[in-house]
Amino acid sequence: MFAKNDYKMKKVLSICVLAVSLFSCKKELVVNEAIPLNGKTKSKSATSRLAANEKIKLLKSGTLAAYYSRSYTREKTFYVELANLAYNKQVFVYHKMSDGSWRDFPLAYIKPADSGAEVWGWELNYGVGTPAAQNFASVGFADEFVLKYIVNGQTYWDNNTGKNYNISSPYNTDGLFMQNGVNVSADTYKTYLRLSPAPNNHFVQVEADIRNLAYNKQVTFVYTTNKWITVQYQSLNYANTYAYGGDNLIANSGLKNFEKWTVGFSIPQGQGPTSMQYAISYKVNGVEYWDNNYGRNYTIAIRTQ
Prior knowledge:
The protein is mainly β. The protein has two domains: about 150 residues, Immunoglobulin-like; about 120 residues, Sandwich (Immunoglobulin-like). The protein is built from two helices and 24 strands.
C-alpha cells in the first residue's frame, strides 16, 4: 500500500532533448491537435477531465476477485485527478467495508496532469499470501466508495454527484470504471518490459482499458526505443480472458461498456532495449483517441523478473 502523504515520491519525467527527437515526439503524439485525415477527424487528446470548479475527481478504477487452480487473486486500483491547491495535502479513497463501516485508504502522488493538476493513485494486490491480505482478512471490501481530499484546512469530496461509486459486477467478481470523456487508458500497472532467457531478447506485455464506442475498432501500442527517432506499432487484441497472478484467467466481461485489450510480443535478439517510451492509440468511428500521459508519453524500464 502507498504511504500517507507520499507526494515526495514525485518522479522527474524525461523530455525529448535532441531536436530530431523533439520533433518526432510532438509530431506523433502531440496533445489536443485535430488533423484532417481522409475527410475524417484525427483527434489527439490527453485524459484530463478535471473541470475548473472541481477539486478532485475519479479518473479510473478497477477491482477484481478471482479463484483459479487453488489460487486467489484480489486487486484494486484507483486513479484520481485533483487540483494542486498546496504542497501539503492528504488524499483518500473512503471505502465501505463488508461489515458496514467506512475506512480511509491513503493515495499517493503518481504524476502531473494538465493545467497544474495532479494524478494520485492506489494499486493494491491483497490476494492470499500477500502482506496486504492480512489487513483485510477479517473485514473485506464492500462495493461502494467515494474520494476525499484534505488541503488548506478544507475537505473536498467526489461522491459521484451523490450516488457514490460502485463498480462491482452482478457476480461481485470484477469491474472497471473510466470517467466520462476518457475513452482509452493505458494500464501501467500491467504493462512491462522484461528480459527473456535468450541473450538480448526482450518481452513486452501491454494492456489498455477501452470504452466500447463501437464494435469495429483498432487499438495500437505506439512505441520507440530510440527517443522517437523511429516509431514502431503493435496492434492490441480484445482479450477474451486476461491473466492475473500466474494461473488466474479472468473473463473480459465488458462490464459497464468497458473492455480490456492486450498484446505480448518479443523484440528480436540484438534489438533489446533497456527502456521504451509509448502511448496508446484508439481508432473508432473515424476518430483517433490517445492516451499519451498528458503529452509526456509513458516510459517503461526493463525488469529481470
